[in-house]
Amino acid sequence: MEKGGGRKKREKPNILITGTPGTGKTTTALSLASATGFRHINVSDLVKEKNLHDGWDEELECYVLNEDLVCDELEDLMDGGGNIVDYHGCDFFPERWFDLVAVLQSDNSFLHGRLTKRGYTGKKLSNNIECEIFQVLLEEANESYPEDIVVALRSDTVEDIDANVAYLSRWLTTWMTD
């Protein structure tokens, strides 16, 4: 049996939570994992822990992700289902891995403050703000996955995050009972 877009039916779905840094991906993913018992996979942490990168980018102050190594590392976990993947990019993951792609979005007045508190400055700060203004990650998700599995969710406040976790929990329950 298959579900949406020709993806194989697993016992449990996989969700990708993506969005510009500072939109609440990790907070949302951790809350959802806690509420559902699903596995949370923070790709940025995995890249650091398992050296799934090709070095450090001094200008952008981040690791240069090795997409092939990341996908190889995650393949077996993703096939089993029950995963909430948290990462700011999405176009390199195989389409078959995800049953829902949630793109978190924040108003720049919220986002700028969050990123500044994290110590983002200069090009790193401006690149991320521009990314959100131009909805780069929503566009990337819409180009990489079937439109019926991509959802944009507002993520400005704690209340928004709570509402998003409730929405995603309901979606999971519906997916598993259909």
TrEMBL record:
UniProt-recorded name of the protein: Adenylate kinase isoenzyme 6 homolog
Binding site for ATP: G22, G24, K25, T26, T27, R118
InterPro entries xref list: Adenyl_kinase_AK6, P-loop_NTPase
Family stated for the protein in its record: Belongs to the adenylate kinase family. AK6 subfamily.
Organism of provenance: Genlisea aurea
Spans annotated as NMPbind: 42-65
Gene Ontology biological-process entries: ribosomal small subunit biogenesis; rRNA processing
Function: Broad-specificity nucleoside monophosphate (NMP) kinase that catalyzes the reversible transfer of the terminal phosphate group between nucleoside triphosphates and monophosphates. Has also ATPase activity. Involved in the late cytoplasmic maturation steps of the 40S ribosomal particles, specifically 18S rRNA maturation. While NMP activity is not required for ribosome maturation, ATPase activity is. Associates transiently with small ribosomal subunit protein uS11. ATP hydrolysis breaks the interaction with uS11.
Enzyme Commission number: 2.7.4.3
Superkingdom in the source lineage: Eukaryota
Cellular component, GO, one term: nucleus
Lineage: Eukaryota, Viridiplantae, Streptophyta, Embryophyta, Tracheophyta
Span list, region Disordered: 1-20
Keywords: ATP-binding, Cytoplasm, Kinase, Nucleotide-binding, Nucleus, Ribosome biogenesis, rRNA processing, Transferase
